[in-house]
């Protein structure tokens, strides 16, 4: 029952967000016929908790596969092969999270999981690129996550996101191309 209740609450939230409607617990209660008390007991932090719950479900599905590899084994191509299908299966929820006024942010627990998994690599990259006096490995992870979220937002906030097979090469291109190369280099 609790999982069904959560699903109804989340579905109602996404319906309201898709309509650019009034995002309140009261409105969700009114439309879902679930009491505010029940909504608050399922999501004590309200709307942000609902978004975080949905986002974490997507992230944990990705992490189940991704974290079975050693960090050094994961290429950008493998990341795309794991991440993009999960987002594509959840594209309706992802579209709303990435494109609506819902309170979306990178959640610290996700960065913490990734940090433990890739700590040695991020620390090594900081040293390799001479950034140790300026940034930490953890800050490099934040930079990577910000770039990843920016590229995924380009895809998922579109009214009709392009098919995953068409997006995958664009994802790889954007993740491999620096802003300097993309915008400031002369076009051949």
Give your account of this protein's structure.
There is one protein chain. With 188 residues, this protein is mainly alpha-helical. It has a domain of 118 residues. 72% of the residues lie in helices and 0% in strands. The longest helix is centred in the middle third of the chain and has 21 residues. The model has no long low-confidence stretch (mean pLDDT 85).
Count of helix runs: 10
What gap, in angstroms, lies between the N and C termini?
A: 59 Å
Mean pLDDT level: 85
Specify the oligomeric state. single chain
Helix and strand composition category: mainly alpha
The best one-word shape is globular
Strand content bin: under 5%
- Given as residue ranges, the uncertain stretches (5+ residues, pLDDT < 50) are none
Radius of gyration: 19 Å
Helix fraction bin: over 70%
Give a short account of the largest sheet.
none
- Output the helix-strand order: HHHHHHHHHH
Number of strands: 0
Task: List strands and helices in order, with pairings.
Elements: H1 2-18, H2 25-32, H3 36-42, H4 47-66, H5 76-89, H6 91-99, H7 108-128, H8 137-156, H9 164-176, H10 179-184
Helix pairs in contact: 1-2, 4-5, 5-9, 7-8, 8-9
Would you kindly provide a brief summary of this structure?
The protein has 188 residues and is mainly α. The protein has ten helices and no strands.
Give structural attributes:
188 residues; mainly alpha; 72% helix; globular
